[in-house]
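Predict the 3D structure for this chain.
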Amino acid sequence: MAIDSIGTVVNNGSASLQARNTIDQEGFIKLFLSQLQFQDPLEPVDNREFLAQLAQFSNLEQSRQLGINMEGMLTMESSSQALALLSRAVDVVQVTGGNIAGTVAAVQFTNTGPELTINTAAGVLTGVRLPQVSLVKP
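Done. Predicted structure below.
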């Protein structure tokens, strides 16, 4: 899940590329067991190499847990930023390229992150993401 914050640059497409270039815990176990199953019986894997691969597996699991924890922290930070904007005057970058001023009236939490509802002079904007907020006025 991509986590947005105020002023971040959204990079579309990099998540799918990263997903293809990584291996999860289950994939590592399958690869490791296949290697053990099909090794040459006349030249088995050295004990040191076997232990090094187990250490790599341990590092992989720790990295995965760290990533999960970091994602949770970023989600909480993004939610906190969105809630702090309630009743605040903001400028929002529109798709057409211009800025529009308004006041944050509501925050909705979705699977993709918080979305703001902003009251403007021209009407109500819904579904505004945090990266679209270009200025928070005092």
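The radius of gyration is 23 Å.
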